[in-house]
What does this fold into?
Amino acid sequence: MSEKQKNYTGFAGHQLIGSGALEDVALKAKERLDRDESSQILIFDDETGEPIHPDFRGTREQFLEKLAKKMARAAGGSEEAEEPRRSGPGRPKLGVVSREVSLLPRHWEWLNEQPGGASVTLRKLVEEAKRASQGTDRARRSWEAAYKFMQAMAGDFPGFEEASRAFFAKSHERFDAQIQTWPKDVRNHLRKLVAIAIRDEKATAS
It folds into this structure.
């Protein structure tokens, strides 16, 4: 889990249900479905823009248990791809993944000359690159999250194509004008996500 709690936002149709911790938003969504089974529920991970699809069946307790298991599986999904951790003599249990890397002979020659060999050097280079691009990556993910939400919730709205062009051109006034007639809750949440992306981009520039 990340240091800060992730934020989720739920909608019933175009109406905002709630925003906050997943459990709180999902419970509000279940309450809405229990009152009206025809409700069209969508819950989004604000950090990624991806929809979450809980199984709303069962009692409140059963629902929460299934939700916790679902999120635990999602959190541990990346570990499933790892090869078995070997514990041979002098080998730490790194849980590394073996994949093919294609380099020119001079690159391999340089890597093999480095302390620790090619694998250690490559891991160090990747970690350094990750640190150097951390701010840029965060801004890119924020823009992607905003667009994924817009596409899911407003893909069939009037003016979507023009709004998309303004979005990618980062013409904020034109974008705001294009979404002005969209349902209030959708419009306001999209503006919030775009504001986060602009903030992250400015932080990178500074």
In short: The beta strands are 8-12, 15-20, 41-45, 51-52. The radius of gyration is 22 Å. Residues 184-205 form the longest helix (22 residues).
